[in-house]
What we know:
The chain is built from two helices and seven strands. Strand 4 (about 65-75) and strand 5 (about 75-80) form a beta hairpin. The protein is mostly beta strands. It starts with 7 loop residues before the first helix and ends with a strand. The strands form two sheets. Strands 1-2-3-4-5 form a five-stranded antiparallel sheet, with no helix packed on it. Strands 6-7 form a two-stranded antiparallel sheet.
Amino acid sequence: GARGGFTVDELAILPTYEDLLGLPEEEITDGGFETVGEASCIYAEHRHPDGMTVDRYYISVESGLLVRFQSYEDDALVCEASVLSTVETVEDDWFMLPSGVVVAGS
């Protein structure tokens, strides 16, 4: 981005599923399906090369969005972030432009 630019995820220190996709395959050490709250999730575990740090990603199978992230050092939880679902189903016949203009029947 622009010099000094950052995303909301970076500001909140939240990793994204893109971060997970960018990791070397050999560092993904576990995975499967788990339920987080009421969300069915794909679970992936990333073990850092230092051997001490493990990150766990939980990605909703419905939305594809990160639902929970946990980071452990020496098996102690040091960081956890959970995202509340704000994704709502909208009608297919409307779309709002960034300017706020609603385009009906798009």
